[in-house]
Amino acid sequence: MSVFSFSNLTQFIPPAGNLEFKDRFISIVASFLSILAVAICTAYFSPNSPMLLASMGASVVILVFAPFSPFAQPWSFVVGQLVSAFVGITCTLYVTPFWLASSLAVSLSILAMLFCIHQPQQPR
């Protein structure tokens, strides 16, 4: 008798989304063009710097697939990117080990977003 069964895993599958094929196609094309624009701008304006697209990729997912989310609003999006860029550049300039600079940059960016930009609502 087996305790584990693959049929029990179906409870973890989320319900299908309600996006039509056209909306899914537009979302995929928009995300492709957005990241392509970031990659081209990075290659053109700063050809010798590494391209870190994880942040932009996450932002594109929020903007394209959850445009009415509080995180996708202009203030949160633009200021969040600018603050995170400022924190990342500051950490790169003043913290020598890369592993420490990157860890500090991520955690300080999250701290800034939690207290200044996104300010999550407390449940009642």
Concise synopsis of the structure shown:
The protein has a domain at 73-124. It has helices spanning 21-45, 54-65, 74-94, 98-117. The chain is built from four helices and no strands.
What characterizes the major β-sheet? Answer: none
The succession of helices and strands, N to C, reads HHHH
Global morphology: extended
Tally of separate helices: 4
Distance from N terminus to C terminus (CA atoms, Å) equals: 45 Å
Helix/sheet category: mainly alpha
Helix content: 55-70%
- Mean pLDDT score, rounded? 77
List unreliable stretches of 5+ residues: none
Return Rg in Å: 19 Å
Q: How many β-strands, per DSSP?
A: 0
β-sheet strand percentage: under 5%
Describe this structure in words.
The chain has helices at 21-45, 54-65, 74-94, 98-117. It has 124 residues and is an all-alpha fold. It has a domain at 73-124. α3 (74-94) runs antiparallel to α4 (98-117). The longest helix is centred in the N-terminal third of the chain and has 25 residues, at 21-45. The protein is extended. The mean pLDDT is 77.
